[in-house]
């Protein structure tokens, strides 16, 4: 029977192909005869499908649909296992269209390794109404991950409330992947029994299950057992903890605060942060007062951790609540509130803190003074000046120290009067504050007051404080100190700082210059020291000589950190660059200390791809860096009209930048401000990196918008961790090189739309188009290289400049 069926089917198919049109009336008659043969025609139809065109495939699929039943199903199954892709597709379409076979036969096919699982799953999805949730679940557990996910998706589409008992009964199974799928399905049903079942999963050791449970609960209404959810604020997995924050806030349970106490006392900083995040959404002044009252009974370390979390993270609700608590009757609550405000540095608290300086508790009043100093608003100065009149010698040092930090010169005269006080601590703080407050108009007068106080003290501590204060003033304002500093540099001697030194002696400063025969420089420096007027570099004309040595040629440029002048060193008869630091940089004491520290290391970088830094100089009231003169243009001037550079040139520049930066990183220097404007190139193609040590003066954790108003780094090229004020290492420079490479090979930077803050936010988000999307002519490996260098996660970037250089060299090959 099979032989004759095959023969007849073969002849009819040949007849149809000979006619050439399956829709021709004669072809239709042949197709009807083919269908009447029954299942015996299926093998020949399957063979024909492998070479059939679209019209032929459609008519043969229709015949297969008519011929499918439980007996013919195995033939079709074998065709799916062995047939061509076109044959498999036709069988799948026929199975999806027919209802003349047992649906369970489909699921059984999933257990056969040789079967095309995606096609079978598509058929099951189209036939889902023929299955029960239990049928699908029974087969889902034995499938591989992809097939399992597809079956659970179908279960989710099929499930209704009648399926809930079956799903809930399986939520405790051993298969964690299946449990996650079940939790996700159950999340659709806002029922108490579902919520209760999902909450049992919150303590599961698998973080993915905990996270799935929290995701489900966040979509549901109704009461929650808030305790276990609050425990997840302390979860070691940050994604779980962050999701727990959302669920706790959404629940807004009245019992939340009592569970937050343990979270705020947790040793883990991230747990404490999570607790404060919840407080910032739900907490009131009474809530925070309750927390402070509870934790005051714990040991000091627990109290410190909890208050530290509230202070560091702050937030509007916390700050508003703590401001109210400054006036609380409970002394311990007031003390805790003051400590928190000392860390938040929120200007909204100024008026309340000024009131708190009069608190009857000395701790509250003194810490309020400290908090005002940390905030840095001069609105506090009048109130603090009133406190100078107090007879409480214990609190005066705190007030004086705060006035020195606030930097208002109105307080100089009252502080001078304190130099007559007998208390050593008050006198020392007054000396330190006066040194900080001295400006160019008052430097000489303040210096004389401090000198007199030190000379008449007969106390080593006060005399030492006076010496340091005078040195600090002279470092900023004395022109005669230049000669002494150069002498000290030549001899290698450090300025004497013993308590018994003569108060009138001019302190010497060690500059960062090499030793050598500099007699001529000393002579000219001593001659110029007599002129006390501060040098105004804006008035220099070509040919003017500064400090008897540096002849002004022209002004090259000006930036946030300084003004760049081209000079000629008349001693060695060579041109060099002098970069005079802007006043807002030079007057920042902490930045200057870091600046000098970084320059000491930057001078060690000697490489053809790095501009050489020579000295750090002081010239009649101005600080300047002297460095190598390199006639050149910036890399930025080559990237114009949004046109990419030729690839060989772009890659070569990238290699040169990496080479120079490798040397810098080996010396312990992170640039922090790599950008096209800091990459110089001469007419021969030699590339040099400039401005080491400038942005590097930034302190770890500083925000990018500093108190002096300039930006550390360039927003278009800054690494995300630098923007966020996190710890910066060599990988921040790698990110910047990645951005520069992106701009070179596409013609445009990855992020440039909007203001500086908008651009910085885009870097943190990391959603730039890939380089190959912008320039479709790029080789894919080079585009992938740039993407890796620009990874938001620094652990996913190249981990060294050498590694990035090697990748670029392979791209160039």
UniProtKB/TrEMBL annotation:
Classification via Pfam families: HEAT_2, HEAT_PBS, Pkinase
Entry GO MF terms: ATP binding; protein serine/threonine kinase activity
The protein's enzyme class: transferase
Superkingdom field: Bacteria
Residues binding ATP, per UniProt: 579
Gene Ontology CC terms, in alphabetical order: autophagosome; cytosol; membrane; phagophore assembly site
EC code(s) of this entry: 2.7.11.1
SMART domains per record: EZ_HEAT, S_TKc
PROSITE patterns on file: PROTEIN_KINASE_ATP (PS00107), PROTEIN_KINASE_DOM (PS50011), PROTEIN_KINASE_ST (PS00108)
Residue ranges of domain Protein kinase in the record: 550-812
Keywords: ATP-binding, Kinase, Nucleotide-binding, Serine/threonine-protein kinase, Transferase
PANTHER family assigned to the protein according to its UniProt record, in alphabetical order: NON-SPECIFIC SERINE_THREONINE PROTEIN KINASE, SERINE/THREONINE-PROTEIN KINASE UNC-51-RELATED
Protein name in the entry: non-specific serine/threonine protein kinase
Species the sequence originates in: Steroidobacter agaridevorans
Higher taxonomy: Bacteria, Pseudomonadati, Pseudomonadota, Gammaproteobacteria, Steroidobacterales
